[in-house]
From TrEMBL:
Residue intervals passing through the bilayer: none
Protein name per Swiss-Prot or TrEMBL: DUF3388 domain-containing protein
Positions of the DUF3388 domain: 70-258
Organism superkingdom: Bacteria
Amino acid sequence: MGEWYFEYEIQVNRPGLLGDIASLLGMLRVNIVSINGVDEGHRGMLLSTENEESIQRFISIVSTMENINVTRFREPKLRDRLAVRHGHYIPRDADEKNTFRFVRDELGILVDFMAELFKKDGHKLIGIRGMPRVGKTESIVAASVSANKRWIFISSTMIKQTVRNALMGDEFNGNNIFILDGAVTRRSTDERHQQLVREIMGMPTIKVIEHPDLFVQHSSYKIEDFDYIIELRHDPDEEITYEIIEKNNMLSSTDHFGGFEF
């Protein structure tokens, strides 16, 4: 059974408009999987049918309706599914198409977004930018749980500064989610840790790197190597800078309790 994403802009919001569209779909034996407002004045639908001719007839008819303007009709993308589920589109950078922006109030959408990425097999390199205590690590862990994947910290400051220099047992499983703190890894002078990072980067699995801009400094990797960049802010106007992040990492690596290396 094929699926399509259909979105239209309401030109005249007259009574019975949605009912007319739903009735037309019913007559053509096209199922409405889900429906929601996706932006102001826009409504999105996920549709399914076993007969592709029916969906083409539907689009041909609905495109002539005076009260609406068809804005999208295509095989559903991840952003389409999340827009219908949550009621609005995830903002995407106009120039960098693989950069997606969230604010802290949208952590539920972010977790859903990453969980869908985590469910796909094979290599995927994901970077996540954001200031301290905005919810980066918690979102990655929650998305791993949602995707039914095991997560492994290679470097982190979630509890104490952690720097791994080896994996044990089934931790090399390609079904795991590997999480790195780019600032911690960049500062590490442990060659065993750096070798482990190189091994993991070469594995056909999912890697999530916090502070990707710091990670690529003094390394063979480039920001263009990332399949997705996620930016998480407390509010839409927050500037993501690295002075505080670098200072926090320096303090956590030099305090009298020390960190974990294993």
